[in-house]
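User: Could you check the structure of this?
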Amino acid sequence: MISKDEFRRALGRFASGVTVVTARDASGKLHGITVSAFCSVSLEPPLILVCIDKNTDSHYALTQTDSFVVNILREDQQYISDRFASYLPDKFEAVGYNLGINDLPILEDALANLECRRVNSHENGDHTIFVGQIERATINDGKPLIYWQSNYRNLRN
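Assistant: Sure, the predicted structure tokens are below.
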């Protein structure tokens, strides 16, 4: 088996987009976490997946709800990614958002917002894979924020 460092270095060679997954726990508190482990699963029905670390408050929130939002960030939204990757007590402070389906927070001006209904989850290692069916999508113009080799990047073309 490879080491954690080798694993990180190897997967750092794969460029990914940057998302923020938002949810609301059973008490009504808003949660959000920066996620690069996101991908499409199925066109029919429209399914996506996100992988969330089991040791986060956002993981706890996602286990308590049947809905979540994937916000795909634009190239000028690195500050949002940094904020939701932090341990700040109120990650939503100073970040514009609206409430969507099930009163879930939808980040303003994202490249896309995918409002999802959780259809299942799978625990694997130190993460859980949450599969969601997209119920509503908002799509905006712009270029994506990219993460590659432990740094943010953007498209040049």
